[in-house]
Structures are given as C-alpha cells and as structure tokens.
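Researcher: We plan to redesign the surface later, but first we want a full-length starting point. Tokens attached.
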C-alpha cells in the first residue's frame, strides 16, 4: 500500500486499465514519487521526472527510470512524440509546456492531470494565479483529445480545504 496516492490517479488508472504488456508511463514533476511507485506496481515502466534530485533519491523501486531535469527550461524537449501510454501530472502547472506534454502521449494513450484551480488561493498555496487553473481550462487545453471525465471540485471538510481541477482524456 503506497501512502497518499491521489484518489483521482487511483480512480483513473482503474478506469482506463491498459492491458498491453510493456506499457509505459511518465510521471511529470513526480516529487517524492508517490505516483511513480503506484504506477510501477500496476506494471508500467515509469519515467519519473523531477527537477529535484533530493526528491528522486526518495524512492528506489524497480521499473522506475529517474530523470532529473528542468522541464520548464529545456534546450531540447527530452521525449520523442508518441512515447507513453499514460502521462500523469499532479500538482504542477506550466501552460507553456502543455502541448509538449500532449505530444508524448501515444495514440490511444491517456493523460491524467490534476492540479489546483482558481479560488484555491483562499485556502492555501499555491496563491500565484500562474499556478491555478481557470474554469474549464483543462478541457480547453486538451480539446484535441477525447474527454473521458472532467471535474472541478471544492473540498471543505475539517482541516481539508482545496479546489482541484482534474481530467482524464485520451489521444484518439
Ligand atoms: C507540488 S510538487 C508535486 C509532486 C508530485 N507530482 C505529487 O503530486 O506528489 C511539484 C513538483 O514539481 C517539481 N518541479 C518544479 N519545477 C520543475 C521543473 N521546472 N522541472 C521539473 N520538475 C519541477 C518540484 O520539484 C516538485 O517535486
């Protein structure tokens, strides 16, 4: 059991359930690897990318290739088109690289994306609007993909207060 895996990532991977052998996933801005570890246990070969080597040193599971790089300031984008069956991005946003992210997804591959939405600044970090999704922005950013599920949720329960926007969509 891996701690703190996002319910959204769990739910989406359960729904899409890619059956083929040798399936590949990219966990972009992976942090301490909670989703990389989760995906590797589901049988994906995972590339875990983060700018922080300290974060990447946090985990050692097999089937995870670590890539320490600054994905916002690249000279050459590090991945070929159509490289991954699944790309997972959580709690990270840079609109400038969104198209690059989509291009690495294979035909019939999926994007699972979840991050903070506008209004969240009232509850905590991030407060900078550059890092907060606008209403329907994820849908607009992925409109050449097939939308499977999209939601904007507001959670106000005890100490837990956040606004998240989340999507799962398919490159068709
Ligand atoms: C809020 S954490 C989210 C981590 C992980 N996705 C999760 O949800 O547990 C944001 C992550 O983005 C990484 N990051 C920030 N800027 C980056 C960049 N330019 N290139 C690659 N990773 C970056 C940080 O090191 C950090 O691990």
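Model: Full-length starting sequence:
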């Amino acid at each position: 059991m891996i701690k703190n895996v996002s319910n959204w990532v769990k739910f989406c991977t359960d729904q899409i359930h890619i059956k083929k052998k040798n399936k590949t996933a990219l966990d972009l801005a992976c942090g301490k690897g909670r989703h990389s570890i989760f995906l590797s246990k589901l049988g994906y070969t995972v590339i875990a990318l983060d700018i922080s080597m300290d974060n990447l040193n946090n985990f050692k599971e097999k089937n995870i290739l670590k890539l320490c790089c600054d994905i916002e300031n690249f000279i050459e984008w590090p991945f070929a088109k159509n490289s991954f069956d699944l790309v997972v991005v959580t709690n990270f946003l840079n609109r400038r690289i969104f198209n690059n992210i989509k291009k690495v997804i294979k035909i019939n591959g999926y994007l699972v994306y979840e991050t903070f939405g506008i209004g969240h600044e009232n509850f905590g970090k991030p407060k900078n609007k550059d890092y907060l999704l606008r209403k329907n922005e994820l849908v607009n950013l992925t409109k050449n993909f097939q939308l499977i599920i999209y939601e904007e949720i507001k959670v106000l329960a005890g100490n837990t207060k956040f606004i998240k926007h989340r999507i799962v969509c398919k490159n068709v």
